[in-house]
Specification:
By secondary structure, the chain is α+β, with helices and mostly antiparallel strands. The protein is built from six helices and seven strands; from the N terminus they run βαααβββαβαβαβ. Strands 1-2-3-4 form a four-stranded antiparallel sheet, sandwiched between helices. α1 packs antiparallel against α2 and α1 packs across α3. It is globular, with a radius of gyration of 15 Å. The relative contact order is 0.17.
């Protein structure tokens, strides 16, 4: 894979972002959360229209970032960060399956970190069984702060109507303290 570049997401990136989400979410959470929860997340967050609405809303927020990574002018990954909740938060980072392990995730993380003020930190939620993601975030300076049930957190922080009978999913809140 050629070298990736990061840039702010544009409205016209919505279909590519949605496509990545529709592929990445099921692959990431298969066997960890119920198929109903996966389908709910995909149906509510990864339609072209839902992504376009998210991009439009975040474009109005000065402390929000929606960044895409491109290789050969093709979107291969994305990252969504904002400061709209109680703490600054990296909400999601997903890559096309063929981009995993190619350095694209690092390009996105470096773009985020370069855009933050010196000393700025943030949190993120990662499923406790996702060892690869945890190792990735640790390489980028994050540490586990606490372990919680992801389902109520996801409902509150990503505005997804997760079914109330969804079984608990252990997840870590990881945090970055800027160097």
């Amino acid at each position: 894979m050629s070298c990736a570049i990061a840039r702010p997401a544009q409205l016209e990136d919505a279909p590519a972002i949605a496509s990545i989400g529709r592929a990445a979410v099921p692959g990431t959470y298969e066997g960890v959360v119920t198929p109903t929860v996966v389908a709910t997340v995909v149906d509510q967050l990864y339609t072209d229209e839902a992504v376009a609405a998210s991009l439009a809303a975040l474009a109005e927020e000065p402390n929000s970032r929606f960044v895409v990574a491109e290789v050969d002018r093709e979107v291969v990954g994305f990252l969504h960060y904002d400061e709209l909740g109680p703490e600054p938060e990296l909400h999601r980072i997903y890559l096309r399956p063929d981009a995993i392990g190619s350095g694209v995730g690092t390009v996105l993380m470096e773009a985020l970190h370069a855009s933050l003020l010196p000393g700025a930190g943030y949190i993120l939620l990662v499923v406790a069984d996702n060892a690869r993601a945890i190792a990735f975030y640790r390489r980028h300076g994050l540490v586990v702060r606490e372990t919680i049930d992801a389902m109520p957190y996801y409902r509150a922080h990503m505005s997804v109507a997760i079914p109330s009978d969804a079984p608990p999913v252990s997840a870590h809140i990881m945090e970055r303290h800027a160097p």
